């Protein structure tokens, strides 16, 4: 366990623990810090998206995600957010919306630019969507192959 610069406690966990891996053949262990959306970031994103302040739960990013608003989410990500916590929170919403929207290469290239540019900020999200505990891609999300490719690129950088 360690404390970050603003006094929040974080836990370093392996990617296998992160995704609940039971695959004994998976050789890759990656130690990354766990990260979750802060209440302040959620409040700000809710405000920007005109979502009620009471909308906050453990699965907030999945509950508010709306694939029809994906372009709006990207615009807000690029132009309205003021700190890393807000970018982390909204990116989780963006990925879930993208997964629901369908795999559009043009949209993926826009999302990918942000994920790669701030891969340290988004590594927890990337690994989550990589579904590293599963070898059979049919058992994963549609975005998993793209996230795995991105994860490999980020690890090499």
Key features of this structure:
157 residues, mainly alpha, two-stranded antiparallel sheet, two-stranded antiparallel ribbon, 4 strands, 6% strand
How does this model look, in words?
This protein is mainly α and 157 residues long. It has one domain. It contains 8 helices and 4 strands; from the N terminus they run βββαβααααααα. The strands form 2 sheets. A two-stranded antiparallel ribbon has the order 1-2. It has a two-stranded antiparallel ribbon with strand order 3-4. 26% of the residues are buried. The model is unreliable at 1-29 (pLDDT under 50).
What is the topology?
Elements: E1 2-3, E2 9-10, E3 12-14, H1 15-18, E4 31-33, H2 39-48, H3 60-64, H4 70-79, H5 84-101, H6 105-117, H7 119-130, H8 144-156
Helix pairs in contact: 2-5, 4-5, 5-6, 5-7, 6-7, 7-8
Q: Report the sheet with the most strands, covering strand number, pairing sense and barrel closure.
A: 2 strands, antiparallel
What is the quaternary state of this protein? single chain
Number of helical elements: 8
Q: What's the count of strands?
A: 4
Q: Please tell me what the overall shape is.
A: globular
Q: Roughly how much helix do the residues carry, as a percent range?
A: 40-55%
- Straight-line N-to-C gap: 26 Å
Biggest sheet: strand arrangement? 1-2
Unreliable sequence segments: 1-29
The H/E string reads EEEHEHHHHHHH
* Structural class by SSE content: mainly alpha
Compute the CA-based radius of gyration. Answer: 15 Å
Strand-residue proportion = 5-15%
Q: Compute the average pLDDT.
A: 82
The figure for the number of domains is 1
